[in-house]
Specification:
By secondary structure, this protein is mainly β. The protein folds into six domains: 235 residues, Rossmann fold (3-Layer(aba) Sandwich); 118 residues, no CATH class; 77 residues, Immunoglobulin-like (Sandwich), CATH 2.60.40.1080; 214 residues, no CATH class; 79 residues, Immunoglobulin-like, CATH 2.60.40; 183 residues, no CATH class. It is 13% helix and 34% strand. The chain is built from 13 helices and 61 strands. A nine-stranded antiparallel β-sheet has the order 17-16-11-12-13-14-15-10-18. Helix 1 packs antiparallel against helix 9, helix 2 runs parallel beside helix 4 and helix 6 runs parallel beside helix 9.
Length: 975
């Protein structure tokens, strides 16, 4: 535990009532000042015809300039209130409460003359003699916090002194003991005496203790601890020696050589197992300066040989420790400032400052905090944002560098234990850094300004972009769902940035947080199993904004705007958009036209975007993320885009690209209800239809919905609202908002699939046999077989015995095998009839010809798949069409993939080993042709309107839903 040491040099101060012993003065009853910190305390009294005081305070490198400045400002005038100044010094030193470890209290007086006028001010004494005697008595009998006062005097007799004997007597009376009186003959001697006194006083500040741990020796063993670097015990000049007493575990008859200690001749040991520890207290600084713990050696005296034997097992680094404890002292310096010093007065002031500096050096503790600094004295933050302050304590060797942080007004800004300042609300406060050691402080004035602009909309908009510091600053670029840029700080707008580790590809799927590039799957925000694991999350709201860059960086209620909130901002009934420049930066000034908010505006800089590495289109376009996923293609998300002539919130782009973020804030915009685009829907089996939820308000934050079907055998619905008709019957599709649990319904009726009615003799299926959408190829079949195979050869063809000339069915020539004269497939051998049931079947040659003759053909693509579209030319059916994908044929592998080759149910009329197919190609041509029956080809079924199970005739199917007169079960007010 540290002890305190205090030195006082005459000073005046005021706090509490002080009851002094001695004559009463005008303005007496000085208040008491309390000091709690360990240290050296200094005060100064200066005198001539007046008394000048510098109050007592702790002396360190943070306060020494106060004393230096006080001494600098002293000037010499006539008069020498010598006695009164000493009286004042006593008053000052007594009117204070010092630390409990006060060890020394001193008054140091310098004078060059005799007292003049003290008895005129203090009328309690009949003359100067009595005043001086009383001062001497009080100096001798005064103790400060139980510590006896020491008084020193230095006299340099001036030429105007007429009574040398009185001068000498003054010095002796003002010194306690009288040996502390020094009469000198030059200013150099004054300086020397100041330095000697400072050295003596500084030695009293520190107390040294030496701890040594050794294995317990035998009883009566003489032990010597040598503390200098010697090869034998007898060569040592610094050692401690004593005899070990086993019963008391102590050293007796202890003697000290080259070192002194207050522990005396008997030092009790503290046992720890087989070891015993000895503490030698109160070692003087002179002795401590010569001690090197690493040189410690233990020697045991062997009486039989008369020699000292070294204990080689002693480890000085671990078994010995020299510790220093600091105490407190107070020094009061009393300076004569009369004109008799003439030109030497400036020299006196210099020597007095040297005395103070010497004391300060002695008081300095390299393990103690002397000052604290903070890196900013002013800071401006915007509401909801954070900043960091850094504070340091000095010196660097300080033992306790702990800094405590506080805010004067936490309603304006708070501060964490590591100096992170969080802006709470507009206003001003001071953030204070306090050293735990000594409680020194430094502060920074923090001004919090509002970052929000109220445009009268559902949310408040930030004044500038995320990562920016002003409205015209582009700020940072973020991938959708990431909270940090990919580049190092300072490279936001560089075409050659320094990328963070692992981000060397810039903004790409190889670096995207929510994409597993090796397995090619998305890890979050996905509704489609073909893209990876499904979590059915579509916005940052769904994960409580943990992936929202605005919330992660600014906290509070800040978040990325939804698509609906961007649309609200772009609504001309709410805001005007004006292309302009701000400080040379192009962008849009968006100004509210809402009543009560007119004129409020924000500036959106055209910051461009980052795709892969470089910044693109900055200064020309603005690309700003919304917080919503594009459900149809979950690798993309919505963003708002603008350039000089246009702006829109309906853009979609890859989630991995880097785009700007303009945060919004305010209470969550809650869902109030949901409605569907239609209330009733009629579909044919195999059809699909997209239902759209209309959430109110359109600016709601949580727009994610959960879809379900009451009977999935009739119709299913995915999380994009796509309804798939599976079989005849009725079901109810429901949508439920995650926010609030609001529901809406659509009644779905599914009829048996009759195909697409082109106004021909049969209806054509909208997709191939085995496919679920028009662009899919479906399965491949040999002619007359009802199941697909892995390979297609004559050797595995059903209707032959291994080759084309061994046909077993559908043959009109004996050269090719058994003859049955069948030229159209039996329904049992019709793949469409076998898999879909009557009235579905494969088309005949004549029905294919009818399609070709009554439709227009266009080579096109659907869903990225090349094919041909046949559109009816029959009046009343011209809005009906079918898409035929180019799927080639299967042999031992896929062949002719640039063609669409489709079986008919008709046998070739020229060669029974072939059947009729129809062909479409990429050049816009289509025709019929004969081909080997064993080959695998797709089949486009037809619906026989006259079949046994055919449905009654109906109007052409539009594959669209129909508005209903029946209201949905849940509908938003006003819709």
């Amino acid at each position: 535990m540290k002890k305190l040491f205090l030195i006082v040099v005459a000073a005046a101060f005021a706090v509490m009532s002080c009851n002094r012993v001695g004559p009463e003065y005008p303005g007496d009853n000085q208040p008491v000042v309390s000091f709690n910190e360990t240290g050296l305390y200094l005060g100064i009294v200066a005198f001539n015809q007046q008394i000048y005081t510098c109050p007592i305070r702790r002396l360190d490198y943070g306060t020494i300039n106060i004393f230096d400045t006080f001494i600098d400002t002293l000037s010499a005038t006539n008069g020498t209130l010598l006695y009164h100044s000493v009286d004042k010094a006593l008053e000052m030193i007594q009117c204070a409460k010092y630390p409990s470890n006060l060890f020394s209290a001193s008054v140091v007086t310098f004078t060059d003359g005799l007292d003049q006028g003290s008895s005129m001010i203090i009328e309690d004494y009949p003359g100067d003699f009595w005043y001086l005697e009383d001062l001497h008595k009080r100096l001798s009998n005064t103790d400060i916090a139980g510590v006896g006062l020491s008084a020193y005097s230095i006299g340099l007799m001036g030429e105007d002194v007429t009574n040398a004997s009185l001068f000498s007597n003054n010095l002796k009376k003002l010194a306690v003991p009288s040996a502390n009186a020094y009469e000198v003959s030059s200013m150099e001697a004054v300086d020397h005496q100041f330095q000697v006194m400072a050295q003596q006083m500084s030695q009293k500040i520190y107390n040294y203790n030496l701890s040594i741990t050794i294995p317990g020796p035998a009883n009566g063993t003489k032990v010597r601890f040598t503390l200098d670097d010697v090869d034998s015990a007898t060569d040592s000049q610094i050692y401690i020696e004593g005899k070990f007493n086993l019963s008391s575990r102590s050293l007796t008859g202890v003697t000290y050589h080259g070192v002194s200690s207050s522990s005396g001749s008997t030092v009790a040991g503290v046992q720890d197992g087989i070891f015993v520890r000895f503490e030698f207290d109160g070692i003087t600084p002179e002795a401590a300066a010569g001690i090197r713990v690493r040189n410690l050696q233990q020697w045991n005296y062997v009486s039989s040989s008369g020699k000292w034997q070294k204990n080689s097992e002693l480890n000085a680094e671990n078994d010995a420790r020299l510790s220093r404890q600091k105490k407190s002292a107070v020094v009061l310096l009393n300076l004569d400032c009369s004109t008799s010093l003439a030109d030497e007065f400036s020299t006196l002031k210099y020597h007095a400052q040297s005395f103070v500096e010497k004391l300060c050096e002695a008081a300095f503790d390299e393990t103690e905090v002397t000052s604290i600094t903070i890196d900013k004295t002013e800071m401006i933050l915007y509401e909801g944002m954070e900043g960091v302050l850094a504070a340091r304590v000095w010196p660097e060797t300080a033992e306790d560098k702990t800094i405590l942080w506080s805010s004067e007004d936490e309603s304006v800004a708070t501060v964490s234990s590591n100096g992170r300042v969080k802006a709470v609300a507009p206003g001003k406060t001071r953030i204070i850094a306090t050293s735990r050691d000594r409680g020194l402080t430094a502060s920074c004035e923090v001004t919090v300004e509002s970052l929000m602009v109220d445009l009268g909309l559902s949310v408040k908009w930030a004044k500038f972009n995320l990562g920016a510091s002003s409205p015209d600053d582009y700020g940072d670029y973020f991938a959708w769902g990431e909270t940090e840029p990919h580049y190092e700080p300072g490279y936001a707008h560089s075409d050659y940035p320094v990328w963070k580790e692992g981000m060397e590809d810039g903004y790409a799927f190889t670096t995207y947080k929510w994409y597993d590039y090796n397995n090619e799957v998305f890890l979050r925000y996905n509704h489609d199993s073909s893209y990876g694991p499904i979590d059915n999350k579509a916005s940052f709201w769904d994960y409580n904004y943990q992936d929202d860059a605005a919330r992660a960086n600014w906290g509070g209620t800040w978040r990325m705007p939804t698509k609906g909130q961007w649309s609200e901002l772009m609504d001309e009934n709410n805001c005007t958009w004006t292309w302009t420049t701000l400080n040379g930066v192009c962008g849009y000034q968006v100004t509210s036209v809402k009543p009560g908010f007119k004129g409020n505006s924000i500036f959106l800089p055209a910051a461009g975007y980052r795709a892969n590495e470089a910044v693109q289109n900055d200064g020309v376009e603005g690309h700003y993320w919304s917080g919503e996923l594009y459900l149809k293609e979950p690798y993309r998300a919505y963003f708002s885009k603008f350039f000089e002539d246009d702006y829109s919130s309906n853009w979609i782009v890859s989630r991995s690209t880097g785009r700007s973020v303009r945060p919004v804030a305010g209470p969550k915009v809650k869902v109030s209800c949901v409605n569907l685009s239609i209330a009733e829907l009629s579909l044919q089996e195999g059809d699909s239809y997209i239902l759209y939820p209309y959430i109110e308000p359109s600016t709601a934050d949580g727009t994610t919905c959960i879809w379900s079907s009451s009977n999935e055998s009739i119709a299913t619905v995915n999380q994009r609202g796509v309804v798939a008709a599976n079989g005849p019957g009725n079901t109810v599709i429901s949508v439920t908002t995650l926010d609030g649990g609001y529901m809406a319904y659509c009644r779905v009726s599914v009829e048996a699939n009759r195909g697409v009615d082109l106004g021909l003799s049969v209806n054509w299926a909208s997709c191939n046999l085995g496919a679920s959408s028009p662009e899919q190829c479906g399965d491949y079949y040999a002619w007359g077989e009802v199941s697909p195979k892995s390979g297609y050869y004559w050797s595995n063809y059903l209707w032959c015995n291994g080759g084309r000339q061994s046909l077993t069915k559908y043959n009109f020539s004996s050269s090719y095998g058994w003859v049955d004269y069948k030229d159209v497939l039996d329904l049992d051998d019709d793949a469409a009839w076998a898999n879909l049931g009557e009235p579905w079947r494969m088309p005949t040659y004549s029905e294919i010809s009818e399609l070709m003759n009554n439709c227009t053909y266009e080579y096109t693509s659907l869903g990225g798949v090349a094919g041909g579209r046949f559109t009816s030319a029959v009046p009343g059916y011209t809005d009906q069409s079918i898409f035929i994908p180019l799927c080639g044929l299967m042999y031992n592998r896929l062949e002719y993939s640039d063609y669409g080759l489709y079986w008919s149910s008709s046998l070739s009329g020229s060669s029974p080993d072939e059947a009729v197919m129809f062909v479409v190609d990429s050049d816009g041509y289509y025709w019929t042709q004969n081909f080997d029956r064993f080959l695998g080809m797709p089949i486009r079924p037809v619906y026989d309107k006259n079949g046994r199970n055919a449905a009654p005739p109906s109007t052409p199917s539009s594959n669209k839903g129909h508005e209903s007169d029946i209201e949905p079960m849940e509908i938003c007010p006003g819709r």
